[in-house]
Amino acid sequence: MAAKRPAAKSGTRSAPSKRSSSAKIRARLNHPVIDGDAHIVEFPGVVLDFLKQVAGADAVVRYQALRARRAPRPRGPWWAYLSGKYSADRAASMLPRLYAERLDDSGIDVCVAHSSVGLAVMNLPDDELRPAICRQRAERWTVG
Questions:
Q1: Which whole-number Å values give the CA distances from 143 to 6, 82, 101, 139, in the listed order?
Q2: Per-residue pLDDT for 130 more than 80?
Q3: Pairwise CA distance, residues 133 & 47, whole Å
């Protein structure tokens, strides 16, 4: 996803209540700030729904079977869990438009956000599933 920051609308839930230190630093710069390594955290149900739309119900069954056969994984990374007082940040990582609206407060002009699921499926042995899942990144998570 490549997103340009839209102006925050006054009175919306994503409009910053005060300028963050990041936004203050950005205001002093005379060049754009680009985040080239942002990540979208896809909600699993949405990924499965999209996969069904683009590749059919059989693809969903095959994808779930491939994921079930993987070796047990250790507990996921810290950023994949509930965020307490940072719940709005967690929500923004799952909702691309909200993320784009919050770029200004983060001091970011443009970001390139990678699909977490899309990165994880690059080594799937199924030549039909791999591009279908990667396609959801391009079609569902582009904001601009």
A1: 10, 25, 10, 10
A2: yes
A3: 8
Confidence of residue 4 (pLDDT cuts 50, 70, 90): low
pLDDT at 74: 59
102, 20 contact by CB (below 8 A): no
Comparing CA positions, the residue from 39, 60, 40, 64 lying closest to residue 49 is: 60
pLDDT at 14 (0 to 100): 45
Question: How many beta carbons lie within 10 A of that of residue 49, not counting itself?
Answer: 13
Q: Which residues of 65-87 are buried (b: 16+ CB within 10 A; e: fewer)?
A: eeeeeeeeeeeeeeeeeeeeeee
Give the rounded distance of the alpha carbon of 50 from its chain centre: 15
